[in-house]
Design the sequence.
């Protein structure tokens, strides 16, 4: 079945450091891929998405590229801020868009 | 304000006592879904609904029921809760065809003793 695997956390970085959170997926078809962010005490919010191979999703300085050959969708940001401290979830949905599969989440803490 | 609301936000109950967690959205979304979030397991989909009277099982539907009698509401029912259903529950909604852009509620923390 479909699944998402993302790197274990927690991750602690200093402000302005480079961020990479790895995500790989298994899917039977051609899924859409997403990154969601969860701030403390809140529900999840869509951060970015990519719906086909080689698409790059971007938002708020975060980027991720849909790599079909490596079945990956790694999240990157060039310079993190304290306000980026949150839990990040990689997710996929098959083309029907009905069922979603989330990774286990990666907690990021950015220290000044 | 566009939002998804859940009630209650916190609930402590005992094994076997039926409970309902309500979910309501004011965005006229067709698609609604329930998830549970557990440490080390991420979010897992329980049930989803494409429209009124149309529901389907997600990854972990055992022990749960849902109904979709109105477009705005999608309650989650635990007929006989057990301790392994202790979890953080999220409701989400989206427009059909854009189901990836899900809007999540604030969560309901349920403890079953």
Sequence:
């Amino acid at each position: 079945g479909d699944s998402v695997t993302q790197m274990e956390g927690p991750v602690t970085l200093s402000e302005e450091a480079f961020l990479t959170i790895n995500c790989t997926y298994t899917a039977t078809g051609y899924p859409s891929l997403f990154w969601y962010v969860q701030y403390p005490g809140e529900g999840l919010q869509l951060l970015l998405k990519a719906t086909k191979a080689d698409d790059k999703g971007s938002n708020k300085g975060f980027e991720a590229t849909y790599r079909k050959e490596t079945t990956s969708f790694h999240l990157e940001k060039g310079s993190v801020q304290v306000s980026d401290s949150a839990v990040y979830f990689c997710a996929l949905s098959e083309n029907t868009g009905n069922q979603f599969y989330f990774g286990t989440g990666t907690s990021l803490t950015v220290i000044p | 304000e566009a939002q998804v609301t859940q009630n209650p936000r916190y609930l402590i109950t005992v094994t076997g006592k039926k409970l309902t967690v309500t979910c309501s959205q004011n965005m006229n979304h067709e698609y609604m879904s329930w998830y549970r979030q557990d440490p080390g397991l991420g979010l897992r989909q329980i049930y989803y609904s494409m429209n009124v009277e149309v529901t389907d099982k997600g990854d972990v539907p055992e022990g749960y029921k849902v109904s979709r009698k109105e477009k705005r509401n999608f309650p989650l029912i635990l007929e006989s809760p057990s301790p392994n259903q202790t979890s953080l529950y999220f409701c989400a909604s989206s427009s059909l065809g854009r189901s990836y852009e899900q809007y999540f509620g604030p969560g309901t923390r349920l403890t079953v003793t």
User: Anything to note?
Assistant: The mean pLDDT of chain B is 93.
